[in-house]
Amino acid sequence: MKERIPFNDSWLYKPSFTSADPCGTTDTAEYSRVDLPHTNKILPYNCFDEAECQFISSYKKLFRVSKNWEGKTVLLEFEGVMAACDVWCNGIHVGGHEGGFTPFQVDLTAAVRFGEENVLTVKVDSTERKDIPPFGNVVDYLTYGGIYREVWLTAADPVFLSRIFLDCPDPLEEEKTLHCSCEITARQTCESTVTVTLFSPQGEKIGEQTETLSLGQGCGKYRITLSHLQKIALWDPDHPNLYTAEAEMRAGDNRDICTERFGFRSARFTPEGFFLNGKRVKLIGLNRHQSWPYAGYAMPRRVQRKDAQLLKEELGCNMVRTSHYPQSRHFLDACDEMGLLVMEEIPGWQHIGEEAWKERSLKELEEMIVRDYNRPSIVLWGVRINESQDDHGFYTRTNALAHSLDPGRQTGGTRYIQRSELLEDVYTYNDFTHDGGEEVFRPQQETTGLESPVPLLVTESNGHMYPTKRFDQEQRLTEHALRHLRVINESLGREDLAGGISWCAFDYHTHSSFGSGDKICYHGVFDMFRNPKYAAYAYASQKNPAMQIVMEPVTAASRGEKDGGGMVPFYIMTNCDFVRVYKNGKQVADFYPQKEDFPYLPHPPVMVIHLMEADVISGFSGEDRQQFQEYLDKRMREGTLTGLRQEDLEYLAKLAHKYGLDVKGLVTTVIKSAGGWGDIANNLVLEGFWDGRAVCRREIGEGKYAAGITAKPDDTVLYAGGETYDATRITVEAIDNRGNLMPFIQECVEVKLEGPVSLIGPARFPLTGGISSFWIRTAGETGSVRISVEGMTGRTECALEVELAVPLT
Ligand code: GAL
To answer: Residues 150, 387, 490, 613: which is the catalytic one?
Structure first.
């Protein structure tokens, strides 16, 4: 039976390499102790030299293998090493790999000494080698360096089952069939029996099939079919039903088991849109880079999974694109479990290299498909280099390879050029048309140049068209959010579109030729710490209010923040039916979603257009009240009310006359309704109504001051002793006297930890725009953790526990 052991703890690392390093010596004086995932260099948050992580380093590991393993095949599996590596065991070169985003294995059998100490050396080349995708020209993302994903040590019998590939030919049939292709390696020809069992999400046995197989020498694929499977629940974003297939192989004394999860679903892109299980589903989502402050790409399971949770559960997206490379297994596991659909693509960025480079790219395509074949979340393979030019020969090959490896999934390939040659099943297109004006996406024919409609998915929009920092001015943050709303609205409204995946989920590190000059592209709806900008609420507010009420005012709630002054207009991203606004204890009005501007959104934003107390006009006739309301709305939309025109004055004078009011008084009241100069501090209460009831309430406004800081961990229990270390994020926020974020506090806070954890990154950092986060990781021990954070605004504490790992599902 195969034994598979996590091989992540207690590696030795040195940020350099010499040809003497691979020899089998156990002298490790220059090395420091590290665990995997590991980044070759903890970088500053920004403003660093990108060359800082581009160097060759060496990793060593001293390990013993049991004497009982003699006669077995000993394999070392690497999930991801950036960007190329060579591996030696006891001074013998045993293999290597090129390409930083896909897994590979090396065979240690001939080099390992059973029952004795062994020395493993890995030379990791994290330079941007021109012969390896995505490199060769400029790239708008950093790839960092190191053994940044997990490693496994496996001992397998002479006959072993390396993996299984699962397919359901027609998931929409009442009685379903499951093909299980078993990849079996045998040192010599032999007879074997294989039993495949299918378990439901609840663990019940659904079907079973046993076959006797004559195995050839080497690695071969053998198909076992389970038919007439009944009462199978389909997989979809609302019901991510995951079945488990277990294949058990016996050949003489050799026995092996392979277990994989699977979801029964059909996914088809057509000219009429995307169909999941035969039903049309609009795809709305964001692109994701897998990078974090300080640690680069090297984050463990829990932190990877958190991104899927943010996208699916916090924002309500149903699709993500793993721009621009295959991403962590943990992230994709969470996509399978949470029901987040995925377009996964090969590494690259605009540039196509020479023949050897293309061969490497094809290899990466194969490695990606083999690794992720069974995932129900993946509905599209991206088989073009992101935004590259047409290359008939190369893309004919990538498409053919993807189709031959996986006949069941469609291909796409992201381009930004119009009228590009369509060799894929889906025309996936980055449409950056929207610049704040009327036009959002190009008409299909202009994009494709084709006579007839084809399956079309927008894979990017926004991004560099409107880079926005979380701490930018209110108007910019608002426009950023509105642009995302316009793109969602268009994606939902356009019949010929499968949907829209916008740029992008999280701010990310980049090279000097991109970004804001500090090595960051501020294109995320979250910052790099995963703290939301207002644009994040553009997505979140589209969620079904029956599931979660969202009401997020998009404003600093101060009259001097906007150009020209005035508190209004401001938006509220909400899925409430309307929002009732009170000013200084008096009711202002009910404000409704802007349906006319966003006809296809389930929940257009509410615009608070004025702050005039309701009782000012309560004596007006119904008709005058309505006219007055319309007048205010119109004037406020044109700009703030500070400068009244002659026609305004005439209209107001007439009204004042009719109702016996003081003309000057009415004019002043109207001007003040903009929440502008000359009025006392405005404090607002927002009350969200849904289904006839007040369901949420927020106090915002001017009478605010910093009242303290809070520290919130994403998790309260971490696990030690699992596959590797565990980690979580703690978010520190400066809050005002009403509990709202103080958006302009910039102050330094210091973190102190007690207990079996350590910080990933610095202990002292600024709250930028009132908020920041840090990550802590376990150090192998269990126990209680106390975290204290202190700054000028206050001091706070939080606590969590590190417990012994429970086996992962
Ligand atoms: C696209 C590119 C992305 C990113 C984005 C910024 O052209 O595919 O990787 O650079 O622009 O908006």
So the answer is: 387
User: For atom 9 of ligand 1, which residue has the closest CA?
Assistant: 140
pLDDT of residue 673: 82
Confidence of residue 81 (pLDDT cuts 50, 70, 90): very high
Of 382, 380, 349, which Cα lies nearest the Cα of 365? 382
Ligand 1 atom nearest to CA at 503:
12
Give yes or no: residues 477 and 492 share one domain. Answer: yes
Ligand 1 pocket, residue 552 CB under 6 Å:
no
Closest by CA to 133, choosing from 382, 318, 339, is 382
Q: What's the CA gap between 230 and 244, in Å, rounded?
A: 15
Q: What is the residue range of 585's domain?
A: 552-701
Could you identify the atom of ligand 1 that is nearest to the CA of residue 416? 7
Q: What is the DSSP letter of 805?
A: P
pLDDT, one tens digit per residue, over 418-435 is 999 999 999 999 999 999
Looking up residue 208, the CATH number of its domain turns out to be 2.60.40.10
128-140 burial, b for 16+ CB within 10 Å, e for fewer? beeebbbbbeebb
Is 298 part of a structural domain of the chain? Answer: yes
Q: Final residue of a domain: which of 701, 723, 743?
A: 701
Residues 406 and 334 in one domain: yes
At 38-58, the pLDDT tens digits run 999 999 999 999 999 999 999
Task: Please name the residue whose Cα sits nearest to atom 4 of ligand 1.
Answer: 140
Instruction: Read off the pLDDT of each residue in 530-543 and give the average, rounded to a whole number.
Output: 98
Residue nearest to atom 10 of ligand 1 (CA): 140
> What average pLDDT score do residues 236-240 get?
98
Q: Are residues 111 and 193 in the same domain?
A: no
Q: Indicate whether 673 and 778 sit together in one domain.
A: no
In SS3 terms, 708-726 reads as EEEEEECCCEEEECCCCCC
Q: Helices in 659-773 by DSSP H: which ranges?
A: 663-672
From 701, 718, 753, give the residue that closes a domain: 701
Is 463's C-beta closer than 6 angstroms to any atom of ligand 1? yes
pLDDT at 567 over 80: yes
Q: Ligand 1 centre from 571 Cα, in Å?
A: 28
3-class secondary structure, 652: helix
Give the pLDDT of residue 302: 98
Are 63 and 89 contained in the same domain? Answer: yes
Task: Pick from 137, 138, 139, 140 the residue to mutate for probing ligand 1's pocket: most ligand atoms within 8 Å of its CB.
Answer: 140
Ligand 1 centre and the CA of 463: distance in Å? 7
In a domain, 28, yes or no: yes
Domain for residue 273, yes or no?
Answer: no
Q: Which atom of ligand 1 is nearest to the CA of 141?
A: 9
For 660, counting Cβ atoms within 10 Å of its Cβ (0-12 exposed, 13-18 middle, 19+ buried), the class is exposed
Which ligand 1 atom lies nearest to the CA of residue 387? 8
- How many whole angstroms from 505 Cα to the centroid of ligand 1? 12
Ligand 1 mutation pick, 289, 460, 501, 509, max ligand atoms within 8 A of CB: 460
- 422 residue type, one letter: L
pLDDT above 90 for 646: no
**712 belongs to a structural domain:** yes
> Cα–chain-centroid distance for residue 60?
32
pLDDT given for residue 670 in this prediction: 84
**Are 359 and 502 within one domain?**
yes
* Residues 479 and 596 grouped into a single domain: no
> How far is residue 136's CA from residue 563's CA, in Å, rounded to a whole number?
44
Residue 460 Cβ < 6 Å to ligand 1: yes
In this predicted structure, what is the pLDDT of residue 642?
60
Is 596 a catalytic site residue? no
Which CATH number belongs to the domain containing residue 504 in this structure? 3.20.20.80
* Ligand 1 neighbour 464 (Cβ under 6 A): yes
Q: Is 175 a catalytic residue?
A: no
Residues 574 and 629 in one domain: yes
Q: What is the pLDDT of residue 666?
A: 86
Residue 542 beta carbon below 6 angstroms from any ligand 1 atom: no
Number of separate domains in the chain: 5
The token pair at 232 is: 């199978």
- pTM exceeds 0.85: yes
